[in-house]
Amino acid sequence: QVQLVESGGGLVQPGGSLRLSCAASGSFYVINGMGWYRQAPGKEREEVASFNRAVGTKYTDSVKDRFTISRDDSKNTAYLQMNSLKPEDSGVYYCHANVYDFRTGSVDYWGKGTQVTVSS
Fold it and tell me: Which contacts (CB < 8 Å, 24+ apart) does range 68-72 have?
């Protein structure tokens, strides 16, 4: 079993910055990829940014040049640096990880989410 714990959400004014963190813990062999999704009220969950061993790093168009995803493999942690935040970036941000273990194969895990609110 793998646990993902997010942190770093909050309230920020338009143009401000936030840094989200997602730490993975538990029993696994390797993390194939991690990413961030967000869901605004009344909207579907969308992928914001992710990295994967097979395809590399990708961002949704609306956050390119403003958000940066990074990782610290020694800590099994992914980060999302969000700059120049806009009200439309508001929502619950969920961490996702695809993890490989010899017993279970590749499995997807989700964090509980952290709220990001961009408002003046």
Answer: 69/35, 69/36, 71/34
